[in-house]
Amino acid sequence: xxxxxxxxxxxxxxxxxxxxxxxxxxxxxxxxxxxxxxxxxxxxxxxxxxxxxxxxxxxxxxxxxxxxxxxxxxxxxxxxxxxxxxxxxxxxxxxxxxxxxxxxxxxxxxxxxxxxxxxxxxxxxxxxxxxxxxxxxxxxx
Length: 141
Description:
Blueprint lengths: L12 H12 L5 H14 L4 H8 L3 H14 L41 H15 L13
Helix pairs in contact: 1-2, 2-3, 2-4, 3-4
């Protein structure tokens, strides 16, 4: 049996007009269009799972925006500040002279770097003696 949302949506004429405008505006952000469509479809009585399938978005997202609109109305569809704070990045220190380089076979290569991946592939093919076709260069020449 499908779940029934406890957050029934009933729109005023002004809210419906605003949401219809948001859902049709070509210059709107995708997230704003989806949020407006979620509320409009919820107003038609559709279940969260049906809305999610129709808009190709997770059911949890539909539930979130349906609930926020029910509680805060149009203001609930706006972006709110994140509670987790700014992203924190840790700095990686360089190994001292006595430490062995880490990475594949002690080469000290980092896969996040396109050049390192290229060097690793070239080195591996040389070590195995395989005849391989060179890969196209990635990144800056």
